[in-house]
Amino acid sequence: MLDHASPEVARDNLRDLVRINRFFGGPFHTASHHGRFCASPGPLLHARCGRGPPAIWARLAAPLPSATITSLDLKCVHLEQAVHPKLAGDAFLLPFAARSFDFVFSSLFLHHFSDEQVVELFRNFRTVARRAVLAIDLERGPLAYYFIPATKWLFGWHDISLYDGPVSVRAAFKKMNYSLSPSDPASRRHA
Known about the structure:
alpha/beta; 8 helices; single chain; five-stranded parallel beta sheet; globular; 5 strands; Rossmann fold
């Protein structure tokens, strides 16, 4: 529902997403680990950055003092609180030259797409990344699925959050305890 909401309605739901990420993981948790993966990076692309307070980008940049973080999202309303540089654009049609960024970071984005589209996105990200592509996403499970509906009385979640939260968890990934060989036909939803 968020993808089709008016900017006014989207802002209310995006506030929920900021609260969820701040207190329950997501980019805030991952930002603390960037230094381990991205030693001395230059430019970093945060693809589908969503609306996050400046604290997200500050925490991304803190362990990466030489980094310039470019925020990319399809919707301008999602970029309102992103720091510059920021760009409204399509991750399937990246407007950047090959190897423009040291790293491309995808944040809570991939569960919105089919397996084929995820592969295409990773190819696009790899084209513009000199060093690596980093991604975080939702993990499918009962706690994540029931959390938002069960806590509406406590947090006052927006109607879009009540609908989109469980839908996103159903589309999310499931951690497995074995390695897949490149020829394994298993779905990436189980990788």
